[in-house]
Design a protein that fits this description.
alpha/beta; Arc Repressor Mutant, subunit A; D-Maltodextrin-Binding Protein, domain 2; 3 domains; five-stranded mixed sheet; four-stranded mixed sheet; 10 helices; LysR_subst-bd; DNA binding; WH-like_DNA-bd_sf; DNA-binding
Length: 319
C-alpha cells in the first residue's frame, strides 16, 4: 500500500511533468525549485523508478514508467479533490476550490459583485479567478484548469455548454468632440470611412469585422489594442471611434476625457453574455450554486457595473 508519498509531492510531480521543467513548474505553482526537486526524488526513491530523463535544450521528458505514474497520480489527485464536493453534497456547507474564468473586458464590472461577492458570502470557498480573452478561456476549459467561464458566445465547440444570461448589442463610442457625437444613431455605412480603433482580441476582432462584412463595407482601421481601456483612451483623444458591446457606467477614459455612446443602427448581431462549461466535466454542487448566483445577478434587466442597453449618453448640446 502506497502511504509514504503525499498528495503535495504528487502535485509537484504532475506540475513538472506538464510544464516540462522544474523551473517552469516552480513559476506556475509558486513553489521553490529545491522543494519540487526533493519531492520528485522522494517519489523516485519510494517507487525505486526513474521518472524523468533530461534532454539537452529540451528540458525533462517522462520515462515510460514515469508516464504510467503520472496517470495514476492525476487520478489520485482528481479523486482527492472530489472530497470537498462529497462533503458539500452531503452538508449545508458550501466549500472547496472554485476556479472561475472571466472575459477580460467584463472583469472590472462583474468580478467584485458576482465573483468575489460569492467568496465573501461563502468563506470556506477557495476562489481562483482567471482572466483572459475567449481563446484563453476556451483552452482552459478544455484543459480542466477552470470550472466555468463568464464570457461571450464566441466560437464555441460542440463540447462547450453555453447558457445565455444577457444580450449585449454593439454600439459606437466616440469622443465628445467627434462629429458623430451629435447624432442619435449611426450606420456602419457612415462609420466605414471614419478612423476606427479596433479592440484586437482573438475572436472578438472577428465579431466586430463581421459586422462590417455583413453591411458590405470595409472599416478604416487606424489603430488597435488588446486593452479595452487603451482603446477607450484613444477614442477619447480623437484618434477614432470604436465599437463595443460591454457598457461601463463611466463615460470617461482613464485620462479624464469624456466619451459619448451612440446607437448603432441596423440589424446587427449582439453578443450574448453567459456561462460556459465543458460538457464532459461534471459540475460540482459548488459550481452549480455559483451558477445560480450568476443567474440572479446577470440579466437583460441588470448587469453589475453596466448601464442599461437602452441608455445612450446625452449629446453635447444637452450637457
Amino acid at each position: 500500500m502506497l502511504n509514504r508519498v503525499s498528495l503535495r509531492q504528487m502535485e509537484y510531480f504532475v506540475a513538472t511533468a506538464k510544464c516540462g521543467s522544474i523551473a517552469a513548474a516552480s513559476a506556475q505553482i509558486h513553489i521553490s525549485s529545491p522543494s519540487i526537486s526533493a519531492a520528485i526524488a522522494h517519489i523516485e526513491s519510494e517507487l525505486n523508478v526513474q521518472l524523468f530523463v533530461r534532454h539537452p535544450s529540451k528540458g525533462l521528458g517522462l520515462t515510460a514508467i514515469g508516464t504510467l505514474v503520472l496517470s495514476q497520480c492525476e487520478d489520485v489527485l482528481e479523486r482527492s479533490s472530489r472530497l470537498y464536493e462529497i462533503a458539500s453534497d452531503t452538508a449545508d456547507v458550501i466549500q472547496g476550490p472554485l476556479r472561475v474564468g472571466s472575459f477580460q473586458s467584463l472583469t472590472a464590472m462583474i468580478a467584485p459583485e458576482v465573483i468575489f461577492g460569492f467568496a465573501r458570502a461563502f468563506d470556506k470557498v477557495a476562489l481562483q479567478m482567471v482572466e483572459g480573452d475567449q481563446e484563453v478561456l476556451m483552452n482552459k476549459l478544455h484543459a480542466l484548469e477552470i470550472d466555468l467561464a463568464i464570457t461571450y458566445d464566441l466560437n464555441m465547440g460542440d463540447d462547450i455548454e453555453f447558457e445565455a444570461l444577457a444580450t449585449l448589442p454593439p454600439y459606437v463610442l466616440v469622443s465628445e468632440l467627434h462629429p458623430l457625437a451629435q447624432q442619435s444613431a449611426v450606420t456602419l455605412e457612415e462609420l466605414a470611412p471614419e478612423p476606427y480603433v479596433l479592440l484586437d482580441l482573438p475572436m472578438s476582432r472577428d465579431y466586430f469585422t463581421s459586422l462590417f462584412t455583413q453591411a458590405r463595407v470595409t472599416p478604416n482601421i487606424v489603430a488597435r489594442s488588446r486593452s479595452e481601456e487603451v482603446v477607450r483612451s484613444m477614442v477619447a483623444n480623437g484618434i477614432g471611434y470604436a465599437l463595443f458591446n460591454v457598457r461601463p457606467k463611466s463615460n470617461q477614459s482613464l485620462d479624464g476625457k469624456r466619451m459619448v455612446r451612440v446607437r448603432l443602427a441596423g440589424n446587427n448581431r449582439p453578443m450574448l453574455l453567459g456561462l460556459a462549461t465543458y460538457k464532459p466535466m461534471k459540475q460540482s454542487r459548488l459550481v452549480r450554486v455559483f451558477m445560480e448566483r450568476c443567474r440572479a445577478y446577470i440579466s437583460d434587466q441588470y448587469i453589475p457595473g453596466m448601464s442599461a442597453a437602452s441608455f445612450f449618453d446625452p449629446h453635447i448640446s444637452a450637457s
